[in-house]
Amino acid sequence: MSEAAVSRPGRTALRPPAAVGVLLRLLALLVLTAGTASALSHVLPARAGVTELSRDADPGGALVVHVRQTDLLEVRARWSSGFLGDKEIVHRFASLPLSPGGVAAFEESVGRTLRAEGKKVTFVEDDPLAGLGGLSAFVPVLYWRFVPEAWLRWSVALCCLTVLALAGLRRHRRAAAGHWYAACLLAGSGFFVHLWCEPFPLHRPGPPGQPAMTGRRVAAGTVAVLGCVVAAGVILALVRG
After folding, report:
1. Which one of 8, 104, 159, 184 has the fewest CB atoms closer than 10 angstroms to its CB?
2. Could you list the residue ranges that cross the membrane (predicted)?
């Protein structure tokens, strides 16, 4: 028997460069999945209380807590304890807080509790989700700026930029570059579809020349992945709510 690799009937053995390409595509899909999960976790934090905040705090005050007043009687404070560790306190006052206001009263109350345990946090009065609303809440590509972990945020950006470059520069494509640009930049989930389909489907590896993809098929795949992201967000909201 020769030393040539034997492939299954009907399947083409991957050459080393193609095998490396498959591994890189799988790695990029993993990075994008982690980035999407982190963004959804940040947008839909788990409900928590001062007990959880005290558990995540430390004596040095390294934990940053974002505080904002959402109503005359309501203050929300959110923080992250790490990957998928986003939490939020929703505090409602029994009566309208006096000057200097609800945020200051909340910070003083929580700070006093933490100091009694030898801990503290750094309060920042802002809304980390400012600007995310309306239709933009359904465009996952915009979530990039909400991924708390810097290493993951930049890894996602690198993967996305690489996909956009390949969509325009690759010689053998199953779909037109314009279709991929529209899918990626308008919905974000197009990055997943491109990585799965170009230049051949990951579930059916083969040389260039695979069946072409129409704009309708690109759009259908993009909407399907977007639907999965929305469904995951709904499930996460139900679990954490």
Report:
1. 8
2. 151-168, 180-197, 217-239
